[in-house]
Amino acid sequence: MSQYLTLDEADKPYFPNGVTPELSDILRASAIIDAHCRREIGAKSYTERIPLTELQRGHLSYSPVIDVTEVKGRPRNGIMGGFFGPPGFEDVDISNLDVDPETGSVWCGGSPFGIPYAELAVTYTSGWDSIPKQVKVACGLIVGKITGNPDSNVKSKKDFDFSIEYFGSGMITPEIADLLSAYCKMSMR
Fold first, then answer.
1. CA distance 46 to 127
2. DSSP letter string over 62-80?
3. What confidence score (pLDDT) does residue 186 get?
4. How far apart are CA 39 and CA 24, in angstroms?
5. What is the pLDDT of residue 7?
6. Biggest alpha carbon distance in the chain?
7. How many CB atoms within 10 Å of residue 44?
8. Is the Cα dihedral 131, 136, 137, 139 positive or negative?
């Protein structure tokens, strides 16, 4: 579970004036940020299978890429020509993999027998080692919204029939969305 601020940072300018944060509010705000960005901001390990083009290029889903720890490749054709089904995954030397850490673009050389790969299974670490200031500010603003009105997403309540009508996803204002825009998952496929 993500936690983008701590109670020790309550005296820092991340929180609006007059807000006394609680740990539960910080965890809730961090979960809202993860849902908006469709990822965790901190460094996390991922394993994913990516298809490769004819030019042996592909794209990882999460960037920035900190480190690639394991790569397996499935050749387009096996030694038997695919007669007994598709070939299985084999270990790939990580030095044969070229990864752009900022965008997650991948290029891979062929297998040791010169056969191009159809797809790769890549285990890598992505995210930020230290939480960026923009994310902390966004977390503080969301905590301020939560503590100011715990039911800020409720449009109306009717007690006689127990119905509650909600607004849309109102915790992420345009200002907060702008702060988080550089940290959202961007699909390249």
1. 10
2. S-SEEEEEEEEEEESS-TT
3. 72
4. 20
5. 87
6. 74
7. 14
8. positive
Two structure tokens written together for 96:
């044969």
Report DSSP state, residue 11. G
Which residues are CB-contacts of 11 (< 8 A; sequence separation ≥ 6)? none
Q: How far apart are CA 73 and CA 121, in angstroms?
A: 6
Q: How far apart are CA 140 and CA 142, in angstroms?
A: 5
Distance CA 34, CA 47 (A): 19
Residue type, 93: D
Nearest CA to 122 out of 70, 185, 188 is that of 70
For residue 20, give both structure tokens: 């006394």
Each residue's pLDDT tens digit in the chain (189 positions)?
Answer: 789 998 888 778 888 888 888 899 999 999 999 999 999 999 999 999 999 998 889 999 998 999 999 999 888 876 544 566 667 788 888 888 899 999 899 998 777 777 788 899 999 999 998 999 999 999 999 998 888 765 555 555 555 555 545 445 567 888 999 999 989 887 665
Sequence-distant (6+) residues with CB within 8 A of 78 are 84, 86, 87, 88
Q: Which class for 129: exposed (0-12), middle (13-18), buried (19 or more C-beta within 10 A)?
A: exposed
pTM, entire model? 0.75
CA–chain centroid gap for 164, Å, is 32
